[in-house]
Amino acid sequence: MSTARVVMRSIWRKASGKYALTVLGLWVLVSLVSLVWTPHTLLETDGFHAWASPSAAHPLGTDGVGADVLSWLMAGSRTNLAIALLTVAVSGIFGLALVAAMVSRNTVLRSTSVVVVVDALISIPTVLIALMLSVPFGASAAVIVAACGFAYGLNLARIARPAAVLAARSQYVESAVWFGASGMRVFVRHIMPNVMPVLLVQLSMSAGTSILAEAGLTYLGVGVGAGVPSWGHSLATSVKFISIYPLTVLWPGLVVTMTVIALHLFGDALRDAIDPLTNPELREAA
């Protein structure tokens, strides 16, 4: 049995893993379906039925301009999925680059200097980074991805550094260096596999945090642009009327909460599933 299959079966065996995989699977499915179909087009509005309660025509009701809430949430799911995936990619690449610099043997690029720089930059809030980027580039999903990818990459590097340093000081790495292996080859072949368990768990957490960041930054006006469907946009446009029409805030808030919880539970289940000490099946498969 392949290692990936063993890991997925171990995740599914836990109640939290079932919840995480089910919610994430539905998220991906709805995102794909929304590319070709939504109950109503996003530009379809009905001013005579603004803030309508749930009905057969509008299962989740309508917003302030009479647009279908369900259609906007379905379309927004693909925006949030793209933001989460891009944030994971950017933070993963940036974090790994910092980890490589932290354990570098290069005399020009001192690892201690990189650690000091990371410790200094990690104190900058993600919101402040997004605000700084929105000034020259404007509000867009790219600003969210860049801000979150930068901030989460720093966190990832700081968390993964101990495992990377431990691997870099091991005898097999010393032997590889002695036999003339390049620094990049040593990092990819010998150090990165020791960092991957921590990396995968942190990236799943980063995906969940990026969804919260999108909602918060869009509410502040530095997230996705106006007219772009997203869960944060649905929250930002209806939160002003929460005391009068609470259902329009409930649905996007519920979707965001369920998805973020699923991503964090997936990270916890993944951590246990890929650890040979807590997963005997993984030891047998190896």
What is shown here, in short?
The chain is built from 11 helices and no strands. The protein has helices at about 5-15, 15-35, 70-100, 110-120, 125-135, 140-170, 170-180, 185-220, 230-240, 245-275, 280-285.
List keywords for this structure.
single chain; MetI-like fold; 11 helices
Descriptive overview:
It is a multi-pass membrane protein. It is found in: Cell membrane. The protein has 286 residues and is mainly α. The protein has one domain: MetI-like (MetI-like fold), CATH 1.10.3720. The chain has eleven helices and no strands. It has helices spanning 3-13, 15-34, 69-102, 111-121, 126-137, 141-168, 171-178, 183-220, 231-238, 247-273, 280-285. α3 crosses α9. The longest helix is centred in the last third of the chain and has 38 residues, at 183-220.
Summed up, the helix count is 11
Q: Which CATH class applies here?
A: Mainly Alpha
**What is the overall silhouette?**
globular
Q: Separation of termini? A: 9 Å
CATH topology assignment: MetI-like fold
Helix content: over 70%
Contiguous low-pLDDT stretches (5 residues minimum) are none
Going by CATH, the architecture would be Orthogonal Bundle
Based on DSSP secondary structure assignment, what is the total number of beta strands?
A: 0
Taking the sheet with the most strands, its summary is: none
State the oligomer. Answer: single chain
- Rg to the nearest angstrom? 22 Å
* Overall mean pLDDT: 89
Task: Say which CATH homologous superfamily is assigned.
Answer: MetI-like
Q: Roughly what fraction of the amino acids lie in strands?
A: under 5%
